[in-house]
Amino acid sequence: MNRHSAIFAGAALALAGFTLCAEDFQPLMKVAQATWPEKKHIGVICDYRMSKDQILVLARAAGEGSSITVADTRVAEQANAAAGILAGRRTDFVVVLPQDHMFGGGSFATTMALRRLASRGIPAIGTTPGTLKQGASFAMGDGTQGQLLVTERPIGTVSVVLPHRDLAYQKTSLVSQKAGMATIAVHSAR
Are 85 and 188 in contact (CB under 8 A)? Predict the structure, then answer.
């Protein structure tokens, strides 16, 4: 009996680990593509080693023809350098990964980086309501229960067109028809 319990506990832990990185970025990317069809260069600030699975899921959701520039950061003090990398590479918008340990939704480092990017005209989007408080233009995903949340006060991104609230789709209707995925380039913020 103890042996079976250990097997089930191990399987449960493995499944729990999978669900931590199983954010569905397709609804978010569909709204971004409908709102900004010409914007194909996505920026991400994260610890690439730890968030690689989330980046791959995002790349699949972004689809072929898009590109992702990752500012690989390990400590909060690299927020300005990471924002500089994304601004220098002329990213169109930034996606906040929900589970990155240093630059995920809710961290002070993320807020600082998003404010710096917004001052340069680069908007951010996320999958949780908390990212709106940090400076994201809109959020949609598991953390919003599939509802589109749009900021009431855009920070620094005066020329950004925000999505209409009626763009909120059901997750089941957002299956990507694209066979490929976005290209990924990783740059160290150190």
Answer: no
